[in-house]
Amino acid sequence: DAGITQSPRYKITETGRQVTLMCHQTWSHSYMFWYRQDLGHGLRLIYYSAAADITDKGEVPDGYVVSRSKTENFPLTLESATRSQTSVYFCASSESRLADYNEQFFGPGTRLTVL
Amino acid sequence: RKEVEQDPGPFNVPEGATVAFNCTYSNSASQSFFWYRQDCRKEPKLLMSVYSSGNEDGRFTAQLNRASQYISLLIRDSKLSDSATYLCAEKLNTGGFKTIFGAGTRLFVKA
Residues of B15-33 as b/e, b for ≥16 C-beta within 10 angstroms? Predict the structure, then answer.
């Protein structure tokens, strides 16, 4: 199906483990984003990507790594998970045309719990 | 100070009521603003963009006040289905598509 998908939808892991969250979009959008959402903070940008092989840090990048070898995929890796990374993670994508009002389309989210 | 601030609410209103939310932003150079709606345990979805001249979509009206650096969302004739969290967002004028979101305002519409 067309759209933006995330996997897994739910994940429980332990402190210190490496975890990779997957994001896949079928629209060929150039821009992709990773956010985390916590109570009281709203959506905070972790990393974003303007195109394949182009990534940049957002507001809260520490402890996360991203890659973008293909336009449609934008995986997020927690290299050594910590309890403070327990959160809901949303991936989003946006069209590449230079317009002020380009909408971001969000995936369904991944609920990550780090024990 | 947060870049984008919203009253978290919750706003509890009866069906048919008119309710308004404000959202303040700190970057005076930002050009583009949005309201997203987020249902419980779901992803945010765009409700409407906020144009300089203001815009209306059915029961929803969005306004931008550059002098005071806030945007507003007005919902008329509230429906039960309007119950959700409303996130305001500011697209920074720094190139690219970096967007800052507020923490959201919760709305409960009751029968």
Answer: eeeebebbbbbeeeebebb
Which residues from A are below 8 Å from B99, CB to CB? 33, 45, 104
CA A37 to chain centre: 11
Q: Can you read off the two tokens belonging to residue B106?
A: 């919760």
Please tell me the distance from the alpha carbon of residue B38 to that of residue A91, in angstroms, as a whole number. 14
What chain B residue is nearest to A106 in terms of C-alpha separation?
Answer: B43
Averaged confidence pLDDT in chain A:
92
> CA B6, CA B86: separation in Å to the nearest integer?
9
Between B94 and A71, whose confidence is greater? A71
Is a pLDDT exceeding 80 seen at residue B31? no
Q: Note whether B103 contacts A: Cβ–Cβ < 8 A.
A: yes
